[in-house]
Amino acid sequence: MEVNIKRYLENWSDERNSALLYSFLADNEKDTRLSEVYQRLAATEVRHANRWERLIKENGGTVPPFKPTWRTKTLCWLAKNFGVEMVLPTVVGIEDKGTDCYKNQPEAQDFIAEERSHSNLLKQISRTGQNGLEGGMLAKLEGRHKSAGGNALRAAVLGASDGLLSNFNLIMGVAGASAVAATAVNNKIIMLTGMAGLLAGAISMALGEWISVQSSRELYLRQIETERFEIEAAPEEELEELVLIYQARGLDDESARLLASRLMSNPDTALDALVREELGIDPDELGGSAWEAALTSFALFALGAVIPLIPFIFTSGYLAIGLSAGASAIGLFLLGAAITLFTNKPIFYSGMRQVFFGLIAAGAVYLVGHLIGVQIAG
């Protein structure tokens, strides 16, 4: 009985957090039609939570005051400050997890289809375009062009993690060699190495990101021009392509043809629709700004890379090495915790896993550096 109550409480908390998150998304969504979608999702989650609350009480349990989790608070903050689309990929993951959790729970079998429907709807919202949609058509498609928000957030965490891990290992390797070769840890060498590693890594990341985004923009522009030519040369074929796309998304033949014909009646809306729907390109963004992506990558890598370097600014020797390892461990734990926004794994597990592998790698590099230092001093 206690096991069931514990499970009911966990389910109740998950549903209440989901309801709160959807309500927040509804309040911060600028498109009133999508806001209504989020409100309906919130109402469904409240209904689910009410069942778990009833089962808790029927089995002699007590329902505690609701307190949103740190993940829910963080997602709400991100949605408020960076836009609803920023958190949609993570919310999809939460819904998928809910579906999996309910598969072996007899009291929640009728929830599975609803949770799966929520996940599919959110995926559609994050992937497809809504230009030209209205009324009942939105009710069937209910979507917008894919957003890179969730991917950008994930890239930010991973970029900082790369900077921290690479420079931490570099510094530990040099510290291991320096301690033997010079009979004491040489702060100047470590500081020089750490700054070189920070700048080299950050510049490399920035350059790689700039080339990637700029190349994508140039490819998108070429594809858009090709699509423009095809609209002018074979408008009927492009019309049929749009009809097939909308039929594949659930519209009947008549509605799909009506929508496609309305979009194709204007060259600008026709190009916009085909670029978004057929190519999956947002012509307003074209993958984002190459310079913005480069500067962001530089800053995030540098932010992570500076953490293991800071102790050597204020102290030296083995104390600095210990403090560097400690600061890096804290940074790794926080980054591991941040990753749970996407994986929905327990915070302590993800954080400590990041710390464990990071310290193991740094220890191995320190040992290699030590052996090299012995050979040099030999």
Strand content: under 5%
Structural class: mainly alpha
Q: Which value, in Å, is the CA radius of gyration?
A: 26 Å
Helix and strand succession? Answer: HHHHHHHHHHHHHHH
Features:
single chain, flat, 3 domains, 15 helices, Ferritin, mainly alpha, 378 residues
In short:
The protein has 378 residues and is mainly α. 80% of the residues lie in helices and 0% in strands.
Describe, in plain words, how this protein is organized in 3D:
The chain is mostly helical. Helix content is 80%, strand content 0%. It is built from 15 helices and no strands. It has helices spanning 2-28, 32-58, 70-82, 88-102, 109-127, 135-141, 149-181, 187-233, 235-248, 253-264, 267-277, 290-306, 311-314, 317-343, 347-377. The longest helix is centred in the middle third of the chain and has 47 residues, at 187-233.
